[in-house]
Each structure stands twice: as structure tokens, then as C-alpha cells.
Design goal:
The complex is a heterodimer.
Chain A: H1 2-34, H2 51-56, H3 60-91, H4 98-110, H5 113-135, H6 151-176, H7 180-188, H8 193-204, H9 206-221, H10 225-230, H11 242-252, H12 256-283
Helix pairs in contact in A: 1-12, 3-6, 3-9, 4-6, 5-6, 6-9, 9-12, 11-12
Chain B: H1 2-25, E1 36-42, H2 48-61, E2 65-70, H3 75-84, E3 91-94, H4 98-105, H5 123-131, E4 143-150, E5 152-155, H6 156-162, H7 170-182, H8 199-209, H9 214-219, H10 225-228, H11 230-236, H12 252-260, E6 266-267, H13 274-280, E7 286-289, E8 302-312, H14 319-330, H15 332-342, E9 345-346, H16 362-367, E10 370-371, H17 384-394, H18 397-411, H19 413-426
Parallel strand pairs in B: 1-2, 1-3, 8-10
Antiparallel strand pairs in B: 3-8, 4-8, 4-9, 5-6, 5-7
Helix pairs in contact in B: 2-15, 8-11, 12-13, 17-18
The chains are: A mainly alpha, B alpha/beta.
Chain lengths: 288, 429
Amino acid sequence: MKNDRKRTFMMITIPVLVLFFVFNTLPLIKGFMYSFTNFKGYGSYDFVGLRNYIDLFQDARVGKSYLFTFKFALVGTLIVNVLSLIMALALNNKIRFKSALRGIYFIPNILGGLVIGYIFGFIFTYILPAAGKAAGIGFLSNSWLSSTKWAWFAIVVVAAWQSIAMNTIIYISGLQTVPEDVYEAGSIDGATGWTKFKSLTFPLIMPFFSINMVLCMKNFLMAFDQIVALTNGGPAQSTESISYLIYKNGMDGGQFGFQSANAVLFFVVIVLISVFQLTVLGKKEEQL
Amino acid sequence: MINKKRAASGLAAVLAAAGLGLLLGGCGNGSDNGKVQIEMVHYKPEAVKAFEEMEKKFNETHDDIELKISSPKDAMTVLKTRFIKEDAPDIIGIGGDVNFSNFVDSDMLADISDFEGLSSIKQAYLDIDKNLEFIPMDGVYAVPYVANAAGILYNREMFEENNWEIPTTWDEFITLLDTIQASGQQPLYFGFKDTWTCLAPWNAMACDLAPADVCQQVNRGETTFAEEYRELSEKIIQLLPYAQADPYAYSYNDACTAFARGESAMYCIGSYAVPQILSVNPEMDIDSFVFPANDNADEQLLNSGVDLQFSVMKDCENKEAAYEVLNFLLEDETVQIYLNDQNAVPCKEGSFTLPSMLDGMKEYIEAGKMVDYQDHYYPAEMSVDALIQTYLMEGDTDAFLENFDVQWIRYNRDLIRKVQDYEAKHGSN
């Protein structure tokens, strides 16, 4: 009986494992191999040893893209988590049209990143400057997307607008796991408002906070489609994220080998960040 | 009980295997009807109608060959991705630019010097293609099909109404810009949000202000960009005050639309923009002139390059059939289909009617006073367009030129070594 069960599980696992290996692990290994070559993506190539990795640390454009991506991801994660937590608290109350509102706020998540990007592109280029001029607000009267100072923030706005939906849902489900009797006990001790949130609600939804932080950070670090639709990395290369640079110069430009090295480095960086987040935030989680 | 479980697990395994088989099966090449299949991929999605017409005509007149033409958007990325998958088409239609140089250098393209149709192509364009080879190769690797020309497009109606004259020198050009601006109209419109459009004035002005082979010279270590591009850099930035405010907010489409609606008198772009402009305003009367970037009208050259050329891939299994397709494409009637659709300049000898928007450039085209685009020599990953955009925004000429030289060496390291090896072996000529 026991062996049988084991075999069943193996039968289920092996095909998935094969699929995973063929479509995930194998490309990863191949990419790792290419990262030691000057492969252009086609034709003949030579092995160049560690040159690509040494270059990575000397390339100003790569450095800029890492700085941009981290700035973008930190600010984005912060904004998304604060706003979606507020939204979740609001939508978890006994308000009218609660289900309808939850549905409406989830729509951005269903729309494709490119569609949203193009619509916001139009808003930033034409509508917002017109409104800014009419209202006499200086920093609004030019397109944000054409300014090296503001373009990154325009992308944060669009990316945040889209990802708040998912995070809100996760927070709402978190809030629903908090048992009512905890609040009752708290109210006897006089916990209301901010104290109630700080001492009761937040510690109890901490696991949801950590998963949201990790997911959100990872998504923002991999930002790609919003950038393609909004700025294409411009103006003056100020909004090139790491994934965008890898795609653009690896596929379109002839840097397949070099950008493979970049991808390997980026993979390591993301793993490190996720492990760090999980260990630090995991320690703070409370169990009832 | 046990049997049931076993059956269930067996079924799961079979299903999973079938799923895997389906997924992998999708990669294979299907269907065969006895005909030789020739697949062509080209990078001119805007000419999709012309190509559909050609494809139909070819397949109607040929029983043994089936031609399939695809016109993907962003074809260069599609092509390169297919090369990575080792699934190359038979014929590719690309521009005479650095991608072509790279494909030749990577030994991707077949030598077609035995193709008879080459004799009908204007020598000037074959030379332009020859110059694109990083190190001189034996053989011919592309059939130049049509060329484009870049300079300044202008609104003929606006010019006639205001009695503005076509400038022939840089000073006259600046005076004209001042005149137009003083009359309360917009002289120029830029779509610099699409960084590549920064290259349009850059290339056109470079014809007069920098040696045509400056990139090769730098690769051989004979000069620097800081030296050769200084005047060009200083002049291009002088154009900005004559364009709309914040040109980095508007894309190529925006600029074409604005020019089509008469919001600016001139638009510094190539003839390839004409179809797009006419799609907004079909009635518009557009003409062009050569960019007057220096002070001697006789020394000015037209910026013209091969806009579309066909190459047979080395992996092509049926070269005969591919040649048959090329022969068909080069028939006068087929060329005319393309010209009518795209307002292009044919590379083939013969009496084709040039589109009226090239009136101002005609004499240069006929006399062969042409220089290729500078950016056809720039590696795509260096993103020179973005460097120029950065420079236009920041305005620091010294920093820009210094950075240009540094970046050039960084991105062309392998190539420079190759060229210098070649020079050492063959001696400089």
C-alpha cells in the first residue's frame, strides 16, 4: 500500500518535473553557459571567460539600470503596500456595495500592462500637461514622460495603479483571518483606532504583509511592459530597468552573451533579496 | 482499490506525457503539398499590402514554388529570436544597416554573386552594401531593392504662400528658420520621444560635416569621434529653439501627424515617413530638399541608404527557388508595385517614375551624389540614438563627444580587434 502511494505521487511529480526542467532549468543552464561567450544571438561565437562579468561591474549603463530598478522597486513597493492596506481596511468594513467595489478595484489587475501603459502614455503626454497648464501648476504643464527627473515616477504611478489590486485582495483575505474575539478582547482593554490596528490587526496579518512585500518587490524588480509602453527606456536612458536592458540589448542589440551574464547576476540578486525579506519579515510574524 | 489507484496514476502519466508531446510537437514544421516552400521575412510592416500583392501574384504564376511572406512588426527582434532558435527563413528583407553587417560577419548569409539579377542594380548601391562589410569579404550578400533619402521634408503649399526660398547653405537655413519663426509659425517639429528620430537630422547633417567612413577610420585607430563629430554636434543642437517646446514628449507618430496638419513648415526626416504623413492628410503637397549643413552648396551630399534589400540565408535548402523569387521581385512590374505603395527610390536601373516628394532630391539621386546613413555603422546595443537624445537634453558637447568615444570602444571591442588583425595581415591600403 505504502509503495503504491509513493508510486502514484511519483507518477504525478515526474511529468511536471520534466516540464519544469525542459522549460525552466535547461534555458537557465544554457543562459549560464552563454554568459561566458561573446555570442550575438546568432552565428559563430567565442568563449571569453569571465570578461562579461568583469564588464558588468564597469558598465555605466548596467549600473544605472540597477540603480533605477532598485529606486523604482523600493518606492513602488512602499506605495503599493501602504495604499493597498488602506484600501483593504476600507473594503473589509461593513460598507454598502462592498462586493461591487471590490470587483471594480480589481479591474486594473485584469487589464494587460501594455494596454494600461498606452492609455497612461496618452494621459501623461496630452491630458495631464493640458490640465496642468490650465491650472497653472508648473511641474504638471510638461509631460512627465519627457523629463528625466519625473519619468521614473510616472512609471511608478502606472505600475502601482495596476498592482494595488492584487495586493488589496491578499490583504482583505488576511484581514478575514483575524478572529472577531481578538477584537472583542482588545476592546475590553480599550484598544481602538490606531492602537487597535498597530497592536492587533497588523501583527496578525504579518504573514500576508511579508508575502505581499516579497511578491510586490519581485514584480517591481522585473518591471518590463509598463516601461516598453510608456517610455521605451527613455528619456536619455533614464528609465531602463534591468529586465528591459537585458531584453533590448540581448535580443535586439547583439549582446546576447553579455546580457546573459547580466541575467545570471540579476537572478542571484533577486534570490538574495527574497531570502533576506523572508527571513527578516518571517521573524516578526505572530502566531495565535 | 489498489487497481483503481494504479489505473488512475497510469492515466495521469499518460495524460501528462500526451501534454508534453503536444507541447514539443508544436515546434516541428508541418504541411507539405509537394511544392518547394520559400519563406521570406522582411522588416517593412508598413508595406504589407504591397507584399501581399506580390505574394499573390507570385503564387498564381508559379506551380512548383510556394512563397510565403511575413511582415512582422519589430521584425529584427523576431528574426534574431528565430536565429537563436535555429529556425531561419529562406530569404530576409532587411535594411542596409549594422544588422546586415553583423549577419555577414557571423556567416549567416549566402554568397549570391552568381545571381544574374545583380547586374541590373545600380553600382552606387552595391558599393554602399560593400562598405557595410566589417572586413572586406569575397562575394555579394544582398540584392539592394529600394533606397530611401533623408533630408528635410517641407510643406510646399506653406512655402509658396509665404514666398520662402529653399536654403542652400547652413546660414541660409538658419535665416529661413528665423523668418518662419518671426512670422509666427512653427519651423520644425521633432518626435524625439522615439529616440531613433534623433538620428534623422544627425545622419542628414553628417553627410556634409563628417567623413562617410568615419567609423571605419576610428576602428583603424586613425581618428576620434571627438574630432570628427564636433561641428555636427554643435550644429544639431542649434535646431532645438526652432522646434516645438519639449520635443521629447512627442513620438514619431505625433510628429508626422503635426507636420501633416500643417503645424510645422518642415520636418527633418527621411522619405520613409511620407506614407505615414499622407495617411493623416492625403491631400498634402510634400517636397524635400537636401539638408544644407555646410556653407558650400556644391559640396553637399544627399543622405541615402539601402532601405530594403534581400538576402538568401546560408541555411536555405533550395537556392534555385530562392533565386526564382528574387528574379520575380526584381521584375519591373513588381518593383513598381512597391514604389507606388511606399514612395521609395528603386535600386534597379531603368525608367521608374520617382515620387513627387523627391523632386528636390532628384538631381542628387540621378548624379549619384549620395552618402549612406552614419547610423548604419553604429552597433544597435550602443544606442547612439539615446546618446544623442541625452546630449540634446543636456547640451554638454564635450561630455557627449568624450562619452561617444569611450562607448564606441566599449561596444566595438571585438570588431576593432578583428579589423586591426585584418589590417596587420593585409596591410592598409
